[in-house]
Write a structure and sequence with these properties.
Elements lengths: L4 H15 L3 E5 L4 H10 L4 E3 L4 H13 L3 E7 H7 L1 H10 L4 E6 L17 H5 L5 E4 L4 H13 L3 E6 L16 E4 L5 E5 L3 H7 L6 E5 L1 E3 L3 H7 L4 E9 L4 H7 L6 E7 L10 H7 L4 H13 L9
Parallel strand pairs: 1-2, 1-3, 3-4, 4-6, 5-6, 8-9, 8-11, 11-12
Antiparallel strand pairs: 5-10, 7-9
Helix pairs in contact: 1-2, 1-7, 3-5, 8-12, 9-10
Length: 305
């Protein structure tokens, strides 16, 4: 894993600004160490608004109203949570497109404390209609998904975090990728959770799907992989964020869903990102316990016809 996801995003964004006169980059100090050169080349299209996150989002939407394709970037906690009203009004209410790129994720910046943690970012974006949500699990996927989002015209949120899988997959927008086939249940691993999931289910007779794009949700792909009506969703953000969509996809089938992700509790010790992952049961050992226990309870459920 020689490539860093955040640096990969910055390099990709700079290249897109160089390549396309309709692309603008708006940021709020964060990642400024990566944008100096491209800002000097294109000062009219690379804008640092300072630590003013509401202005950050409104500036991006204003550029979109002029016909430009804005990339809007800062830490997820400031981009989605602090500036949520501007996302709701300036992008959704005005019905314009843009690409929001949040870094930091649930607890990448654990030393920054609660102000820099955003496990609820995808759940919050889910309250607004028409957003595509991308959760790359590898730096190579960051580049693919940012390019894909910028080439479109809709509203896209890209979640860039430090944790990544050992292997990247080609991006197939809106489609989950089968990784393992089994008969006792299906585990959907989102973004950087794939490697911990694969370690956790070693020796278990389960199917594993991988998702780097979670909105739109590939309900058809989930059904195609289903062998028993038991589904485990492992997300790197708030547990249960995708449960409604799993239930919608399987509405005509008796089924069970186990949602694993960041628990709805605040851990008040700073620790490291790895400490937080383990504390929320998202390391391989914690996932193994949860998934094994869930599958052990499925004896009364018949296989899907």
């Amino acid at each position: 894993m020689s490539r860093d996801p955040r640096r990969t995003f910055a390099r990709t964004a700079a290249t897109l600004v160089d390549e396309d006169l309709s692309v603008a980059l708006v940021y709020a100090e964060i990642s400024g160490q990566f944008f100096g050169d491209v800002e000097r080349r294109h000062p009219e299209r690379v804008i640092n608004v300072g630590i003013r996150e509401q202005l950050l989002v409104s500036t991006g939407a204003g550029l979109a109203l002029t016909g430009m394709r804005p990339i809007v970037h800062t830490f997820a906690s400031f981009l989605v949570e602090r500036a949520f009203e501007q996302i709701k009004l300036d992008f959704n209410h005005q019905d314009v497109g843009g690409v929001l790129v949040g870094s930091g994720g649930s607890f990448d910046i654990s030393g920054g404390g609660r102000t820099h943690q955003a496990p609820g970012d995808v759940a919050l974006i889910d309250t607004l209609p028409g957003w595509n949500v991308h959760v790359p699990g590898h730096a190579d996927e960051v580049e693919q998904l940012v390019r894909l989002a910028v080439s479109g015209s809709g509203r896209d949120y890209v979640r860039v975090v430090g944790q990544q899988n050992r292997t990247a997959f080609p991006v197939t927008p809106g489609r989950f990728r089968p990784v393992l086939a089994g008969s006792r249940g299906t585990v959907l691993a989102v973004g950087p959770m794939l490697d911990p999931v694969l370690e956790a289910v070693a020796g278990l007779d389960v199917s594993v799907l991988y998702a780097s794009t979670v909105r739109p949700f590939d309900g058809r792909g989930l059904r195609a992989a289903l062998n028993r009506p038991d589904v485990v969703v492992v997300e790197p953000y708030l547990a249960g964020t995708s449960a409604r969509l799993v239930n919608d996809a399987l509405a005509d089938l008796p089924h069970r869903v186990l949602s694993l992700g960041v628990r709805n509790e605040e851990l008040r010790r700073y620790g490291s990102p790895a400490d937080h992952i383990a504390a929320h049961g998202l390391d391989a050992a914690g996932l193994r316990r949860s998934i094994s226990g869930f599958l052990a309870e499925s004896a009364d459920f018949a296989p899907v016809a």
